[in-house]
Design brief:
Elements (H helix, E strand, L loop, with lengths): L1 E3 L2 E3 L24 E4 L6 E6 L5 E7 L4 E7 L3 E5 L6 E9 L2 E9 L2
Antiparallel strand pairs: 1-2, 3-4, 4-7, 5-6, 5-8, 8-9
Length: 108
């Protein structure tokens, strides 16, 4: 028998079981190039991109609820996070077909 997250199954003999470890590597050509700082941040989060282009920036709580959204075409922009409670958030940036999600920490 084989048991995993999908359920229980039976293998007939002979069989080969292949196990692959996924490390989360992403195709760099499909990622938005961005620097975010400071992280952790207390009042403003600075977003510094490699170039100016239209993009959408959305900040989510860990439950997946969108809390803030910024549409920008600037190479450097920011997001006011003073009204957020301290904790961990996810920042998703979309630029055309490219995207990137970052973990952001809001401190006091």
């Amino acid at each position: 028998s084989v048991i995993n997250a999908c359920g229980v199954g039976v293998l007939d003999s002979p069989n080969t079981v292949r196990v692959e470890v996924v490390t989360g590597l992403e195709d760099p050509s499909k990622l938005v190039l961005v620097n975010t700082y400071p992280n952790p941040a207390s009042d403003f989060l600075i977003l510094e991109f490699s170039h100016a282009a239209p993009r959408q920036v959305v900040l989510y709580n860990v439950s997946g609820t969108a809390l803030k959204q910024v549409n920008t075409s600037l190479a450097k922009d920011g997001m006011d996070i003073r009204d957020l409670v301290p904790g961990t958030y996810l920042l998703n940036i979309k630029e055309g077909e490219k995207s990137k999600t970052l973990r952001i920490v809001k401190d006091k």
